[in-house]
Amino acid sequence: MRLAGLTALITGAGGGFGQAAARRFAAEGARLALSDIGPIDTEGLPEGTLTARLDVTDDAAWAAHMAEIARRFGRLDVAVNNAGIGGTMAPIQHTSPEDFDRIMAVNARGTFLGLRHQIPAMADRGGAIVNIASAAGLVGAGQLAAYAASKHAVIGLTKSAADETARKGIRVNALCPSFAATPLFDAMADAVAARHDTDRAAAYDRIAARIPMRRVAVPKDILEALLLLADPANSFMTGQALAVDGGLTAV
Ligand SMILES: NC(=O)c1ccc[n+]([C@@H]2O[C@H](COP(=O)([O-])OP(=O)(O)OC[C@H]3O[C@@H](n4cnc5c(N)ncnc54)[C@H](O)[C@@H]3O)[C@@H](O)[C@H]2O)c1
């Protein structure tokens, strides 16, 4: 088991990726500290799993969550900053300043606050931090500029944090999935469907046609790469943004 005896924190653990990651990490022997702003499905999770309501944009709530993790587990080895929101699909001139701020707050500030609290918690023994960015953190995304900006910010935070923590034995990397079937993506697919006067399934097909592998991912598709970035055996990799996107950003 690749995470045996390690304590792993995952934000946004009520959502598509977060739920899948929690179960995979548990199968690899990790003890879990899960959080979400909404409910978390705990079915099938090991006894002793910590679940908490946490809004990642709230610095004081982060402090309380980290104190609870220290009390319960006495250590933090892996952190996955996964909580995120998508954007309403619209060109920049039709994107409201409020929408821009909301997306930046959750995706960029939320990741910044996570790092701010996780780095000192790991400083004694090192660890691995994985920030869930996006293919839209590597290339632009028309109709999703605020989202793309927030995910570029996540990659900037990742590289900077990697520089600051390399000598503390902490590795910080970003994972960049493309389209994957989760509630977040379904909302986007519905917007595409509405624009083309069609349904969600047809929108999935339209989006899949842009991907060299010709399909939308499922959360399971990204778990191997997530595990690679979290695994202490992957000991010399830091500051990287790893695309898991069916080839989308390669061509
Ligand atoms: N699904 C995709 O196509 C896709 C592609 C690339 C990147 N991502 C990224 O993957 C991550 C997970 O997304 P997902 O697809 O599983 O979406 P999801 O909507 O299924 O899950 C996201 C979770 O984050 C939680 N959340 C939202 N705001 C929060 C806040 N302020 N504080 C704490 N939790 C909050 C939600 O309650 C939800 O449970 C996100 O960062 C997303 O941007 C998703």
Q: How would you sum up this structure in a few lines?
A:
This protein is an alpha/beta fold and 251 residues long. It is built from 7 helices and 7 strands; from the N terminus they run βαββαβαβαβαααβ. It has one domain (7-178, 219-250): NAD(P)-binding Rossmann-like Domain (Rossmann fold, 3-Layer(aba) Sandwich), CATH 3.40.50.
Features:
single chain; 251 residues; alpha/beta; Rossmann fold; seven-stranded parallel β-sheet; 7 helices; 7 strands; 14% strand; globular; binds nicotinamide-adenine-dinucleotide
* Rg on CA atoms, Å: 17 Å
CATH topology: Rossmann fold
Q: What spatial form do the alpha-carbon principal axes imply?
A: globular
Q: Could you name the CATH class?
A: Alpha Beta
Bound molecules: nicotinamide-adenine-dinucleotide
Distance between the termini: 35 Å
Low-confidence stretches: none
Q: Can you tell me the CATH architecture?
A: 3-Layer(aba) Sandwich
State the helicity in percent bands.
Answer: 40-55%
Mean pLDDT: 96
Q: How would you characterize the overall build of this protein?
A:
Helix 3 links the parallel strand 4 and strand 5. With 251 residues, this protein is α/β, with parallel strands linked by helices. The protein has one domain: Rossmann fold (3-Layer(aba) Sandwich), CATH 3.40.50.720. The chain has a 7-stranded parallel sheet with strand order 3-2-1-4-5-6-7, sandwiched between helices. The protein has 7 helices and 7 strands. Helix 1 packs across helix 7, helix 2 packs parallel to helix 3 and helix 5 packs across helix 6. The radius of gyration is 17 Å and the shape is globular. Nicotinamide-adenine-dinucleotide (NAD) binds next to helix 1, helix 3 and helix 5.
